[in-house]
């Protein structure tokens, strides 16, 4: 018996996958070549599962800014802003985010995960009520556990269930904070934000939207679901990340709350961790500029997402409800999903294998994420590989495959 | 209340179950985390209350569940 023996059940589940040659947690790229390609075991592989929505990780200007900042200000801040002070990159990035969202305040964190830990554990405290969608990301659940508020879970994307739970709290003291996500990371579905905003208004709750997967993806100017749904005025706090559409790493929160800066002296995941390095902030700033200046990135992204979604659906695969840049194919069970995933990988297509308990409804998913940088040829190649593996594993009858090929 | 809870178990699990105060919800009834979540939500609907997540984590047996529902219904929960 070791101290880790308590987790043996996870090992057993993983060993069953390993026995079939499926090792999703140990994909080792020899080299990443571009936003859409990497070398894996000596083979050129299409990257269709890296949340690189706008494909900016290799953008020449972003790289240039990062190099300049690194040369000028060093590789790291070597500590927190509380201890080591604020660099001009922190200030400029926060000003740029506040300007982009049209909000009074912005605060950056060292990762998106920490943004949720920090904001959720600090906005609500003992005697308050945190209302979480049941399919919330792990960082939201973990943030809820770091704080002292009472945590109530409502049914996924169900404003009526949320309303019912808020109504049960009538007369109970304490603030209420509703937390939803712009695009949910596993199935790519969006929150019914108009209806949720209505519940928020009627019950006097606060509303926080995590736009991690929707920043740069949804909305006329890329601000996310709140913009797309036309309810930005109802959203009190927006949390997001730099590690997807902005191609770097880090997290943020924006708000019009007048005393927002109080967070800087009470929010532990902000105060007690090293702040973002200058190079990361410089590339992020440049990426945000591109996001604003080049709406074609979003058009390409949605065109690619639509093409992949329509292709997979036409073949007969079971996909999620919306053609967003996250598209997941539901598999009958974990082992089939694992084998399918491995065969895709061996054919030169990298996607994500998502299995319980990380998935909604304990589904086993082949999760893809699409980039503006994918070419039509890459999307079509991915569809061909899906069709080929699907046929080999008996998912697609021959006629269905022909129908898909005729797209 | 135990009969009501047994009926909800049967509805969620889709099979008859025999429960006593000592029945361990996860171990004895073979529920996974999703099953537990669906079951908790069915209980919440039936009794028109919300069981906060920290309370859910404390519930192991049917007796624990009955106590939690009782306390939440009467508003005496900590």
Structure characteristics:
heterodimer; A: 407 residues; alpha/beta; seven-stranded mixed beta sheet; four-stranded mixed beta sheet; 14 strands; 42% helix; globular; disordered C terminus; B: 78 residues; mainly alpha; 59% helix
Strand runs of chain A, count: 14
Structural class of chain B: mainly alpha
Which sequence of SSEs, written as H and E, runs from N to C of chain B? HHHH
Roughly how much helix do the residues of chain B carry, as a percent range?
Answer: 55-70%
Q: What would you say this structure looks like, in words?
A:
The complex is a heterodimer of chains A (407) and B (78). Chain A is an alpha/beta fold. In chain A, strands 4-10-9-8-7-5-6 form a seven-stranded mixed beta sheet, with helices on both faces. Helices cover 42% and strands 17% of the residues of chain A. Mean pLDDT of chain A is 95; it is low at 401-407. With 78 residues, chain B is mainly alpha-helical. Chain B is globular. The chains are: A alpha/beta (407), B mainly alpha (78). Chain A binds chain B through residues 134, 144, 150-153, 155, 165, 168-169, 356-357, 361-362, and chain B through 32-34, 37, 41, 48-50, 52-54.
